[in-house]
Amino acid sequence: MKQYFSIQNIWVPAGFLAVLLIAWELLVRLTAVRPQVLPAPTLVASSGWEHRNALGAHALATLNVTLLGFAVSLACAWLIAIVIDFSPLMRRGLVPLLISSQTIPIVAIAPLMIIWFGFGLLPKILVVALVTFFPVTIGLVDGFARADREASALLRSMGAGRIKEFLFLRLPSALPLFFTSL
Which of 27, 57, 142, 157 lies 20 to 30 Å (CA to CA) from residue 182? Predict the structure, then answer.
């Protein structure tokens, strides 16, 4: 089996990154672009080092909001996907709404979240949840629907009810799409 995270496999991406950073640095220095427009990588690195304490604190706050929003998204996505799987009426009603909801850009929704919920933690968590909710939900719904029909018929013929069929067949068949959607 090929190892993707070996030392040998790091050299090519690291080389590309080095070439990109050198080209960026040269572009900024040779064209005299103002730092407010495009700062040089060395300026970004020195500023980052200079403000490392503030960056660390803000990075932790951002990570907390991201994890909370992702947790809310996962809980809602699982709940709604399971409801959709168990109810054909919910599938016909919710899936088109979920898909059409993706036509609204999150940039248009984010200011509304701030107006409705203020500048606190809640609107930030909701924006993260909105961004991550759709792919996970649709991945689960699609994964549940991809369960093998013959295996389903076999389970039913052996006396399995809808819940056992879900637990032993539909849920495992949805996991690859769930992890892909993550």
Answer: 57
